[in-house]
Each structure stands twice: as C-alpha cells, then as structure tokens.
Write a structure and sequence with these properties.
The protein has 10 helices and no strands. The chain is mostly helical and about 170 residues long.
C-alpha cells in the first residue's frame, strides 16, 4: 500500500518537467541520505560486501548540485537494529533502484538538458545484478526467517520516511 501511494505521488513530478524533477531529487535526498548514513553506521557492509558500490547518496548529491542546489536533510536517522531490520530497509532501497530505471526513461524523454544530465541517481547500478544478489542475501538470512516482522516493519518505516520527505518537499 505504501509503495503504491508513493509511486502515485512521484509520477506527477516527472510530468511537471524540471521543477518537478528537482522536487523529486530533493525529496529523495531528505529520505535517502539519513537512511544510507544509518545503514553505514549499523554495519551494512557486513551484509552486503559491495555496499560502497550500491550506496547512492553521492549520486543524488551530484544530481541536486547540477541544479545549483544542496540537499536538505532535516530528518533524524532511523534506528537500525539487527540483520532483519537492515534487510527490510535494504529491500526498499534495492527495489527502488528498479523503479528508478523506469523513471530514468521519463527523465531522458524530457526536453531539459539539465534534467537529462542529472540522472546519476536514477541510473545508478544500471546493468548490475544488485536486485538478484540482494534477494539471494535476503533468502539466505536466518535472522530474516526468524524475525520476518522486524524486516517488514523496517520496510514499512522506510516507505513512510520517503512518503514524509515527498510531502515535506511538496509544501516547500
């Protein structure tokens, strides 16, 4: 349910051209930057050895900078405890990469050269097998099997953080 609501709010931003895309990038940063920082502090690299390659914060910061802006990060970092919770958060982030590739097509179809050039975040990881390797790691996790509720709760909280960030940016 959270996923569908979030997607429904993102589509119109791309239809609004460069201004809407800038809102998309800023809202994404409000959510993603504290989440990735919290994952790093929680030791995500012990779960995914290629985490430094998967992290998208820098790509997002660079895309926002292409519009002469800096990200606003005014939310607190989420608490992350245990492997099941980390995997729940990662489920949302890694899944969003798939949606990002779909959105990349919309950004590239836009007439704005600045918008087309600021697609590092959406295209991050294109051609890599991040989703299947993440699913393999999730399926191999004893912690996630023992505490699926923790993984689901962390995923729901992550969707909620993105939705809150998009609401906050829409008001700006």
């Amino acid at each position: 349910m959270q996923h569908a609501a979030l997607d429904a709010g993102i589509g119109p931003l791309f239809a609004a051209g460069e201004d809407g895309y800038r809102v998309f990038l800023r809202a994404s940063a409000r959510a993603l930057l504290p989440i990735e920082a919290a994952l790093q502090r929680a030791g995500v690299a012990t779960l995914l050895e290629d985490w430094p390659e998967r992290a998208r914060s820098q790509a997002l910061i660079e895309d926002i900078a292409a519009f002469g802006e800096a990200p606003r990060v005014d939310s607190d970092s989420p608490a992350m405890t245990g492997e099941a919770s980390l995997l729940g958060v990662l489920y949302v982030l890694e899944g969003s990469r798939l949606g990002g590739l779909w959105l990349l097509g919309h950004a590239m179809a836009n007439a704005s050269p600045r918008m087309q050039a600021a697609t590092r975040y959406l295209g991050h990881g294109a051609g890599k097998a991040y989703w299947p390797t993440f699913l393999s790691r999730l399926e191999a996790s004893d912690a996630a099997r023992r505490a699926p509720g923790q993984a689901v709760a962390a995923a729901v909280e992550t969707f909620d953080r993105f939705a809150s960030a998009f609401r906050a940016e829409a008001v700006q």
